[in-house]
């Protein structure tokens, strides 16, 4: 999981956006619309990055269709020290 997290958050082109999503979800679970509003980003962009995070078992969903909330997966929670290390490494101001 460490390698996946480093790749998705620090090495790939979409990493800065996914870092912003991870930081927002760390505050509290949110749905895609709430994330788009809070991060001032297009909803479809947010959904794309959430799908990438879902496909790689970084986040999981709870709830129904429109109100689907995104939370961290158990694997990410177990590897939270790696997430913290990545968040300290990447530029926090990167859009």
From TrEMBL:
Transmembrane segments: none annotated. Residues 13-92 form the HTH arsR-type domain. Gene3D superfamilies: Winged helix-like DNA-binding domain superfamily/Winged helix DNA-binding domain. InterPro entries: ArsR-like_HTH (IPR011991), HTH_ArsR_DNA-bd_dom (IPR001845), WH-like_DNA-bd_sf (IPR036388), WH_DNA-bd_sf (IPR036390). This is Winged helix-turn-helix domain-containing protein. It comes from Natrinema soli.
């Amino acid at each position: 999981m460490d390698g996946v997290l480093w790749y998705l958050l620090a090495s790939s082109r979409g990493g800065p956006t996914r870092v912003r999503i991870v930081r927002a979800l760390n505050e509290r679970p949110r749905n895609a619309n709430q994330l788009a509003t809070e991060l001032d980003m297009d909803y479809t962009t947010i959904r794309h990055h959430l799908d990438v995070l879902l496909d790689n078992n970084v986040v999981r969903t709870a709830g129904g269709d429109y109100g689907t909330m995104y939370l961290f997966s158990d694997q990410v929670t177990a590897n939270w020290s790696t997430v913290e290390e990545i968040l300290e490494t990447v530029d926090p101001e990167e859009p």
